[in-house]
Amino acid sequence: MGFDIRLPIGMMFSVFGLLVGGYGAATRGSEMYTRHSLGINVNLWWGIIMLIFGAGMLLLARRGSFAVRTPASRSAAETLKDRIVK
To answer: CA-to-CA distance for 26 and 20, rounded, in angstroms?
Structure first.
């Protein structure tokens, strides 16, 4: 149970957020935004949103992996070993 799907999802959204947000920041003030998206820099805003979502997923993945490693959660082998010893 060592695979957490939040880790690759978080990495993917963080990378895409950086790429899209970087493109939006590089093309800020371009006339394409006034013609196509009512003057809103959609690339910049969606890049920021994807970056925040990716960072949140990475944080949750790290928090989830920390909860698995705590001493309170014991493996089945340890529980069986305790039963045999008692």
So the answer is: 10
The phi and psi torsions of 13 (rounded to 5 degrees) equal: -65, -35
44 is a domain residue? yes
**Which DSSP helix (H) or strand (E) runs through 35?**
helix 31-36
Count: domains in the chain: 1
Please tell me the distance from the alpha carbon of residue 1 to that of residue 21, in angstroms, as a whole number. 34
Residue 34, burial from CB neighbour count under 10 angstroms (0-12, 13-18, 19+):
exposed
- Read off the pLDDT band of 75 (50, 70, 90): low
- On whether residue 1 sits in a domain, the answer given is no
Per-residue pLDDT tens for 20-61?
999 999 999 889 888 899 989 999 999 999 999 999 999 999
What are residue 47's phi and psi, to 5 degrees? Answer: -65, -40
Q: Which two tokens stand for residue 32?
A: 């394409």
